[in-house]
Amino acid sequence: MIHYHGGRHSTQLVAVEIWKRRHAFVSFADPGQLPIASEVAQSFALDNGAFSVWKQGGAIDWNQYYGWVEEWMRHPGFDWAVIPDVIEGAEVENDELVAAWPLPPHVGVPVWHMHESIERLRRLCDCRQRVAIGSSGEYSMPGTARWWQRMAQAMEAICENGRPITKLHGLRMLRPSLYEHLPLASADSAGA
Length: 192
What we know:
With 192 residues, this protein is α/β, with parallel strands linked by helices. It has helices at residues 12-19, 34-40, 50-56, 62-72, 91-99, 118-127, 145-158, 176-179, and strands spanning 2-6, 23-27, 43-47, 78-82, 108-109, 111-113, 130-134, 159-160, 163-164, 167-170, 186-188. It has a nine-stranded parallel sheet, with helices on one face. It has a two-stranded antiparallel ribbon with strand order 8-9.
């Protein structure tokens, strides 16, 4: 499993030490240290900043985000980018953001929010190479009993013989108590 380490780090030296020979997860909400990550990390993924908006308020200009991803997606260390999402939004709202993604499909990873339907999760998994899972709504705290119950429902719906039908990324799930029990291809520590 790939461990993506989030930022912002207190100094450039700390950023280098944390990301050196590891994998970085850099948010559009705070992209200042991406040049460091792109130089020292094995690879990096780009986050859309929706978690920061959800926690702190504000808005994101998705066209600027698309331009930022387009600027970095040809870098040799680039892995993928999170497609814009509204964390506690309606499914139709998030489906519209997935449909509006203007870059190649393999570059963008949609988010299934745990308060959304299992049917949406299955639909995303059926048509994407990777799907990110985000804790939201009544399941916003990873690791709680309710969260595990919902995660069990999700895994039952998208796994065959214990393996997911597409690669899964766990947003804010880079804790051994979580990822050691889930069939994730990757997870990150951003916002955790």
